[in-house]
Amino acid sequence: MMLKYCKRTIVAAAFSSLLLLSFQSFGQESEATPKPRLEEDVRVVTIPISIFTEKELDKKQAEEFVEAGEITVEEDGEEQQILSIRSVSNQPIALAVLIQEDLTMNINNQLKDLGEFIRRLPEGSRVMVAYLRSGTIQIRQKFTKDLEEAADSLRIVAGSPAVAPRNPYDGVKEAIERFEGVPTGRRAILLISDGLDLSNGVNSSSPTLSQALDTAILRAQRNGVAIYGFYASATYTSGGNSRLIGNAQSSLLRIARETGGKAFFQGSLTPVSFEPFFRDLDRALNRQFALSYLSTHMKKGYHKVEVLSSNPVVKIEHPKGYYYRRRR
Fold first, then answer.
1. Phi and psi dihedrals of 89, rounded to 5?
2. Does the pLDDT value for residue 4 go beyond 50?
3. What is the pLDDT of residue 15?
4. Nearest-angstrom CA–CA distance, 185 and 290
5. Which of 67, 94, 149, 296 is deepest in the core (most CB within 10 A)?
6. Mean pLDDT of 143-156
7. Domains of the chain
8. Nearest-angstrom CA–CA distance, 222 and 225
């Protein structure tokens, strides 16, 4: 995808899509935007964003033109200066594929589509494949640029309660640690799971009460990892218990939204096919941009982020915050 600066408008072309953006911070600047002078009380922050219209999300089909309007960034409730927004849709991605071991056996019918998705990632991408089991994750393939090898490492799940993890989020945290050896750039996890946390019992399985979920979100935000969740039923959600299914799907939705990813559901059961999910995921990755801005907040710790558009029909997906660790 290419970005072209043209006064107040930025034109971005991606495959068959054309995205029109305008930014207040660019003013009347043309082709080249000079880098602002950095002061000691500001720092550069870069976050991933994806831009869609409500119509696109409803119809699950990308439009040829999107008028994104004026984009603004708020950090801790204060507007910040945007430096640049550049497309990263064609850039390599580091992707960890995590599959919950006790999913119902019909998930095994989805392995072909999953393998095809891995194979068509951008050239230079790195993929890790792991299975979430009781107490740990089983790594089938470490991060590799050999997409064929990564796809071939997929195997059928056991589908047994005996290997069910207490929750999928401990495995997510462990997988995030594996990104430390991966070059900076686009980072994501594809979590195929029911999303249910029963670490502290059914009464604490709500997404607002799960400590494991909270920690996984913070780790993902700290390491710039977007999490995309595919819901599939497992040991405790395959019986149709509406309370457990609701808590499970809400947990997947929360970790996706707060890390800049997306969650995919089709009712309360494992979908017959993940193909529609992969089409939506492809579209989300093809609409990714790296947004860089000047932060005026130098205090270490968590900072809340909001990215807004003046166009009311535009939806911008992005991490809801990040941790700043001040360097000495």
1. -65, -30
2. no
3. 36
4. 9
5. 94
6. 98
7. 2-84+299-324 (no CATH), 93-285 (3.40.50.410)
8. 8
